[in-house]
Design a protein that fits this description.
Order of helices and strands: EHHEEEHEHEE
Helix content: 25-40%
Strand content: 25-35%
Bound molecules: coenzyme A
Strand order of the largest sheet: 1-2-3-4-5-7-6
Number of helices: 4
Shape: globular
Oligomer: single chain
């Protein structure tokens, strides 16, 4: 497996991050990276990260502290051309490690119930079911040991 790293989103790579695409059937399941970056722009504590395999940009994620050592992983996507190669799993573990280093003891994530890929990915790294919100979104939780 080649090396996966998380790097800041900067003016240098932002356009490329916003150009990353999921499969067409996945688009309704997640906000676009352009929208996610616009949200990050007006939310000073949000931490957007570009996912690289070696020197190639392959994905995007966004996490945010919520106070009291609780964090949310708001976004997580791997470009359609690079999915099912283990990148999501490595990237989410790197993000968990970063949040732990920032003091996280609990990390929340939510996704639509039909998003089987997200559910399987999150379960594979240790997230467990927490609750179903009124709008049907599923909330999972990760507890740092
Ligand atoms: C969810 C997502 C980030 C997974 O990224 P990925 O790099 O393809 O994931 P990995 O290759 O690391 O897969 C890890 C595990 O997740 C599960 N998984 C990944 N894609 C899956 C799919 N399409 N269907 C079912 N399970 C899937 C599998 O258990 C997989 O392990 P396996 O390949 O050994 O069976 C990717 O599918 C994606 O970007 N989806 C669109 C955006 C999205 O829905 N993000 C989550 C929003 S909350």
């Amino acid at each position: 497996m080649s090396t996966i790293t998380l790097k800041p989103v900067t003016p240098h790579n932002r356009e490329a991050v916003c150009a990353l695409q999921v499969h067409p059937h996945q688009s309704p399941l997640i906000a676009s990276n352009t929208e996610s970056m616009r949200n990050a722009d007006i939310s000073p504590t949000a931490v957007p990260k570009a996912i690289y395999r070696e020197n190639e940009l392959v994905g995007f994620l966004l996490y945010q502290p919520r106070g009291n050592n609780v964090f949310s992983l708001h976004r997580m996507m791997v470009d359609a051309n690079h999915q099912r190669q283990g990148i999501g799993q490595v990237a989410i573990n790197l993000a968990i490690q970063e949040m732990e280093e920032l003091g996280a003891t609990t990390i929340y994530i939510s996704f639509l119930p039909e998003n089987d890929a997200a559910r399987a990915l999150y379960e594979s790294v240790g997230f467990t079911y927490q609750e179903t919100e009124e709008d049907g979104e599923i909330v999972y939780r990760f507890c740092v040991k």
